Amino acid sequence: xxxxxxxxxxxxxxxxxxxxxxxxxxxxxxxxxxxxxxxxxxxxxxxxxxxxxxxxxxxxxxxxxxxxxxxxxxxxxxxxxxxxxxxxxxxxxxxxxxxxxxxxxxxxxxxxxxxxxxxxxxxxxxxxxxxxxxxxxxxxxx
Length: 142
Known about the structure:
18% of the residues lie in helices and 32% in strands. The protein is of the alpha+beta class. The relative contact order is 0.18.
């Protein structure tokens, strides 16, 4: 009875077992999908427009793709190493090639008038809101 493991703890017990923990530790960097690896992004409702700020230190503007598709604003980054960086004799290197994508749904985003600016490692996107037009016509009574 001492060797019995409650069903809810079964997976934890398997991970502690030698062959499985060694397997997980070996493949963890390859298999892990961690949302903390993506860049941070802030979205502000500023009245008549949205301000989206993506923090992208060390990323050049030609490595960024911004797209608005049916209200979904997507920011994708494809950071590449330069040939100059690849040829160096690094003792420690914690930066490298990476890809990430973040998105946010803005239900009343206008498809025109968007602006984007990259300064000091922060991409700032201004997305105007659709101005609601009333289709009502005032009729005067004679």
